[in-house]
C-alpha cells in the first residue's frame, strides 16, 4: 500500500497533524498500536493557545458542544496559589478550556475519518527504512507500507525513534509518580466537584504528596508520590495497596477505594531530540520532547507542532513549497520546546513538597511576584503558549512571527472573526483599508485568500500563515515587500 504520509500515533499530535494534511488533500494513514482509545483521563483541559489553534479550523465549537466558558479559573505555575491570567494577551480564552485529552482525541479521530483519512488501530511499527524517494514501514499486521514521508507522533517511548537509533539527550528521571482515575467510597472533606484552583488540590503530609481532582460522577484523578520510598520501575503495575496507602495517609482512614479505573506512572525526565528530522521522517509531540507533565503544556506543545508542520508538508507534496520551507519546522519548533523543558524543570523545583525550607521560602517569594501584573503576564504567556514569536526576519515589525489576534472585523460579509477566515487552512492576507497591497496576491490566489476588512486601530495589511502566525505586515504604496514574503512562505506565483 502507498500513501503520501504515514503518521505513527493517534494521540492529539498525530490526529491534529492528520487533520491538517487531509484538509490540504494529502492522502494520510494513521497507525496506532492500541486497539482502543486510552481510557485514562490524562490532561483535563486545553491551554488557551490550543483552544485558539482549534478555533482556527472551526473545531473548537463542536468540540465544546455547549460547554460554557464562564466562571472558569486561571491556570497555574508550579501550583502557586495565584491564577494565571491570559487576558493581557488579547485572547478569547484567558483561562484553560475544560476539554479532556480523551475527548479531544475522540473528536479529532472522527474528523480525520470523516475527511477521508484512515486510522488503523492495533498496528505497531516493526521496522522503518528510507530511500531517497520515500519511506517503507513494516507492521505487526504483516503489512508493508510505503509513503513519501513519515511523521512519528508515537509518544515518549517512540518506537520510530528507537528503530532509527535516534539519540534522545537530556535529563533522566529522578522521581516517578502515579496518576490514577479512581472511585472513592465517599468524598474527602474539603473537596468539591469543581470551581477550585489547582493549588487548592495539592496536599503533602505523612511522607506523601497528592493531588485529588474531581472529574465528575464520583470519579477523581489522583496523583501521588512518596517522599521517602524509592520510585518503582516505570513498567511496574500500579497497585490498589500503594494507591490506598497514599490516599489514607493524606485524607484519613475513613476514605477508601471503590475501584481504580486506570493508572500509570510518570516521571520528571526531560529530553529533546537534537534534530526533529531524519531525512524523510519527522518527529512531533512527545516523540520529539518530553518533560514533567505540569499545566497541560505537553498537549499544547504537540498540537502546535502539528499545526506548524502540517501545512509545510502539504506544500512540499504539492510541489508549491519554497526551498527550505520544511527546515523551518526545526528552526521554529525546537526553541519553543526547549523553553517548555526549561520552565517545567523550574516548576519541578518549586513543586517539591519534600524540599528544604529554602524551597518554601522560594515559593513564598514567587507567589508575591505572581501577584505583579507584569510577572503574571510573562508566566501566563509562557505556560499558555500565547507568547510564542518565531524568528522570521531580523528587525521586522513587532507583530511578525507572533500569533494573529482573533479580531472582530467588518468585511463584505458583515461582522466576523479572523479565526472564521482561516478554516480552509490557507494563507490569509488581511487588508485593513490598505490600497498598497491590492492585487498583489493574484499569482498566489490558489494558496492565499485576500480579504478587505476593517477593525478599530488597525491599518495596512497583514499576511498570516496557515498556522495563524503573521509572516509579513506593512502599508503604503507598492507591495512593501509583500511579494517577497509571499514567495518565501508560499512559493513561486502561478505561471512561474
TrEMBL record:
Molecular functions per Gene Ontology: FAD binding; oxidoreductase activity, acting on paired donors, with incorporation or reduction of molecular oxygen, NAD(P)H as one donor, and incorporation of one atom of oxygen
**What highest taxon heads this organism's lineage?**
Bacteria
The UniProt record lists the FAD-binding domain at 2-343
Extract the InterPro entries matched here. Answer: FAD-bd (IPR002938), FAD/NAD-bd_sf (IPR036188), RIFMO-like (IPR050641)
Ordered alphabetically, the record's keywords are: FAD, Flavoprotein
Q: Which cofactor does it need?
A: FAD
Q: What Pfam families does its record include?
A: FAD_binding_3, Rng_hyd_C
Put simply, this protein is called 2-polyprenyl-6-methoxyphenol hydroxylase-like FAD-dependent oxidoreductase
Q: Which species is listed as the source? A: Crossiella cryophila
Q: What lineage does UniProt assign to this protein's organism?
A: Bacteria, Bacillati, Actinomycetota, Actinomycetes, Pseudonocardiales
